[in-house]
Amino acid sequence: MALTLPLFLAMVLGHVVGAGGALLAPTRAGARGLTTLGAIVGGAAGLVLGFDTLIWGTPFRLEIPQLLAVAGGVSLHLDRLGAFFLLVVEVVAIPSALFGGAYSRVYEGTHSLRPLGVMLNLFLLALSLVPLADNVVTFLLLWELMSVASYFLVLTESDRRETRQAGLWYLAMAHGGLVLLMAAFLLLAASAPSTGFADLRTAAAALPAHTRNTVFVLVLLGFGSKAGLVPLHVWLPLAHPAAPSHVSALMSGVMIKMGVYGLLRVALDLLGGGPPWWGGTILAAGVVSALLGVLYALMEQDLKRLLAYSSVENMGIIFLGIGAGLLFQSYGLTALALLGLVAGLYHVLNHACFKGLLFLGSGAVLHATHTRNMEELGGLIKGMPRTAFCFLVGAAAISGLPPLNGFVSEWLVFQALLGGPQLPRPELGLIMAFAVAMLALTSGLAAACFVKAFGITFLAMPRSVHAAGAHEVPLAMQLGMGALAVACGALGVGCTLVVPSLGAVVAGLGGLPAGLMTGMPGLTLEMPGTVGVIAPAALAAGLLLVPVAVLVAFRLGGVDRRLRVGDTWGCGRIGQTPRMEYTATAFAEPLRRVFAELYRPTEDLSIDFHPESKYFVQSIAYRSEVHPWFERLLYAPIVSFLRRMAFRVRWLQAGSLHLYLLYMILALVVLLLVSRWTS
Amino acid sequence: MRHVVAAGQTSLALLLAPGLAGLIRWMKARLQNRRGAPFWQPYLELRKLFGKEVVVSSNASWLFRAAPFVIFASTVATTALVPVLAVPLAFDTMGDLVVLVYLLLLGTFFLALAGLDPGSAFGGMGASREVTVAALAEPTVALAVFALALSAGSTNLGQIVAATLADPASAVSPGHLLAFAALFIVTLAETGRLPVDNPATHLELTMIHEAMILEYSGRYLALIEWAAAVKLLIFFALLGNLFVPWGVARTLTPDALLMALGTFLLKLLLLAATIAVFETRVAKLRLFRVPELLSVSFVLALLAVSSSFLLR
Questions:
Q1: Per-residue pLDDT tens for A397-439?
Q2: How far apart are CA A578 and CA A263, in angstroms?
Q3: Which of A2, A242, A673, B219 is the right S-S partner for A166, CB 3.0 to 4.6 Å?
Q4: A355 in the same domain as A454
Q5: CB-based contact (8 Å) between A444 and chain B?
Q6: Which residue of B has its CA nearest to A428?
Q7: What is the distance between the alpha carbons of residues A252 and A227, in angstroms, rounded to a whole number?
Q8: Which chain B residues touch A581 with a CB distance below 8 Å?
Q9: Does residue A391 belong to the interface with chain B, where contact is any CB pair within 8 Å?
Q10: Model pTM?
Q11: Touching check for A392 and chain B: CB below 8 Å?
Q12: Domain presence at residue A317
C-alpha cells in the first residue's frame, strides 16, 4: 500500500511532537500529557506500519543521501524481519506510554518531568527506527541514540547513589559493545562499495572464513552485551530496576531484544549463516544465560531486580532457539532451522508482552506501597485486585503455563531441540539433549521463582504498613497492564494465527526457503520439523469447561455449599501476625542450599541470649547475602585496570579549553599522516 | 466413536484414581501386619468431604477458592492426553508429552500459591518444598521424553505407544529401561510418595503436600485430594502404557477394549504393589537429601538418552 510513507512520517512526528511538547508545554500537566500523547500516536503509527509490512510484505524504503552525506547518507528500509521487531517495540511501547503518563505523576515536584518526556520519546523513536536502518552509519547512530536516551532515563532518580552507579555500568557496557560493533562493521565494509546493508550482503559472501568468524565473534559480543547474555549481563540487573517502571518495561521488554535483532541481521542476513560452531556457541550462551539468570532471580528479594534477572533467563531461552536454528541451518536442515528461529522470535514477542506486563505491575506495586522489597509486601491482592490479576497472568505466562503465550514459545523451543537427533553428528545430538534438560530445569525454576514473586508480594498478610494501606492504581495504569495481559492470553490461545506468519519473517534470510509454513491456520499448531502437536485453544477451552462442569455437578449433586470464614490454624496459638509468615528468603532457602556451590552465600547469625538462661532469646540478627562471585572474578580486574589507567592519564585533562583544542589538532595531524603513509 | 472412547477412558481414569490410592494404602497396611481400611475408603472420604462445610482463612483471597478448580481442571486435561485404553484417540491432537508436563506444572503452580495464601508458615513451607522438588524433577522428565521421542520419532503419546507396539524389541532396549527407572523415581517425587514425602503423616518436619493443603476443607479439599490421586494414576499409566504398551487397544472393538481394560488394571495392580513394598521398606529421606535422589534419576535419564544415541 502507498500508505507507508504517511505512516512512517506519523510515527516519527508523533515522537518528535511528544519530545518537543514535553520541553515546551506551558504547564507540567501539559508536558506530561503531550509526552504520553506523542508516544502513543507515534507508537500506533509504527504498529500499523509494522503490520502492513509483516502481513502484506509492503517494503518501505527512504533514502536521504543529503543528510550525513560524508558517511553515505541516511538510509532506511523496512523488511519483514525489521517489521517484526518494530511490532514488538510498539506492542510494549503503547501500553507503557499509557502507564507512564499516570505513573510519572509521582515525580512531580521532586524531579523535572520535561527531560523524562523528551528522553522517553527519543528512546521510543530510536527503538522503532533501529529495525529500519539500512546502512552502517544510520544503524550505529540510532543504536547510540537508543543507548544514550535510555541512559538518561535510567538516571531519572539520579539523587540515589545506586542509580548513578547503575548508570555508569550501563554506559560503560553499552559503549564497550558499540566499539565491538563498529569494529565488526568496519571489517564487513572494508571490501564493499558502500556501507549499505545490500552491498555488505554481497561483499560478505566473498570474505575469507577467518574474517567472517571474527565479525561473528565481534557481533556476538557486541549484541550479546545489549541482550544481557551471561557474562555480559552485569549492567542489566543494575540498570533496569533503577529506571522508572515504564522505562524498565521498555528496556527489559524491548531494548534488549534489539540485541537479538542485530545478531540475526548480521549473522543470518548479512553473513548468511556460518559454520556449526556459530550456532553451537549461541546455544551454549543461551543455556548458561537461562540457567544462571533464573538461579539469581530466585535469590532476589527486590521485585524489580528479580524481574531483571528473569530477563537474562528469557534472553537465554531466545538464544537457545536461535542458536539451534543456526546450527540446523549450517547442516542444511532447513525445516528445523526455520522452527528454531521461529521459536526464538516468538519468544521475543511473548517475552516482550509478559515482561513488559510484569514490570508495569511492579511499577504499580511501587506506586502503591513505595517499596520494591518483597519482605515488606504481601496481601496486595485485597487492596489492588486488578493489578494482582494482571501480575498473576504475567507470572503464569512467564512460567510457561498453558494455555498462555510463554508456554507456546517454550514448547516450540523444545520441539526445535528435540530435532537434535537429526544432526549428522551424535555428539551434537547429545548436546541438544542436554540443552533440553537444562531448558526444562530453567522452566521449573522459573515457575518456582514466580510462585515466590507473586505469592510473597500479593498473597497472605501484609508485612508492613505500606503494604497494608495499598490501594488500586489509576485507570490509565490498569489499562496499560490489562492490554498486555490480554496480549499474553491472545498470543497463547491464538498462536496458530501468528506462528505461520513468523515463518515468513526469516524466510529468505541465509538461504532459508520461503513457503515452508503456508499451512492453513487451524486449531492445532503443527509445523514442518515438529515431532508433536499442541492445540492451545482446545486446551484453554478444556481448562475453562472443567471448572464449569464441576460447579454444575456441585449444584446437581447436592454438594454442601456452605462457607465459613475462620482464622488460619496456628497450632492453637491465637492471633496470627505477619512475622509468622514465610518470607521470600525462606521460600528460596531449599534451592539456595541445593545450589550452594554456585551461590556461595555469606551468612551472619548473631543471637542475643537472656543473661540468666540461654533458653530465652532476646534478639536474633540474621544476615545473608548472595553475590555472583564469577562476576567479581571477571570484572574486578577490568575495573581496577581501568581505574589505574584513568589515574595515569588524568594529567591530560587539565581543564583548559586551549589545551583540548590543541589535542584535537594534534590528533587530526596524526590521522592525516597515518592515512598518507598507509594509502 | 473415537470421542466416546476418549471421553470414556478419561472418566474411567478419574473414577479409578481414588481406588488406586486406597489400594496402595490397604496393601501397605497388610504388609505392616495391620488390617487396614478397604480399598474403597477414599471414595467414602471424598463423599464425606463433599458433604461438609468449607472453612476458609480470613487471610485468604479469591485465589485460594479458585485454586482447587484450576488444579482439578489441569489434572483432568492431563488425563485426557494419557493413553489409558486405546490409541490413537481424539485428544491426541490436543497436545503431546511436553504439554502434559506443563499441564502438571500448572497444577503445581496454583497449589503452591494456594499454600502461601492463608499466610500460615506450614503452607509456605510446603509450597517452597513442593516447587523445589518439582523444579529439580523437571530435567529428568524432559530427558525421559527425549529418550522416548528418540525411539518413536514423535512426542505424541499415541504415536509413542504405537511405535513401541510395532517394534516390541525396543521396549527392552537399555534406553527404555533406564528411562523407565528414571521416570519411576520422578513418580515418587512428583506424587509425594516415600522417600520424598510421606503421604500418611501430618508431621511438619516431613511433609510437603500435606503442608500445602493444611488450610483446605470440605469440597475444596475433596477436589485437591481427588486431583492428587488422579496424578498418581497418570504417572502409573505413563509408566505402564508408554514403556510396556502391550494390551493397549489399537482398534476400537469391544474385545480389544476389554482386553485393554484388563491389562491396564493388572499394570496398576503391579505398580501399586511395587509402591506398597517400596514404601514399607524405605524410610523418608531428609529434605536436603532429596536433590541427590533426583540427580540419580537425572543421571539415569542422561544414560538413557546416550545409550539410545549409541545404539541407534
A1: 999 998 999 999 999 999 999 988 888 888 888 899 999 999 9
A2: 48
A3: A242
A4: yes
A5: yes
A6: B309
A7: 9
A8: 119-121, 124
A9: no
A10: 0.95
A11: yes
A12: no
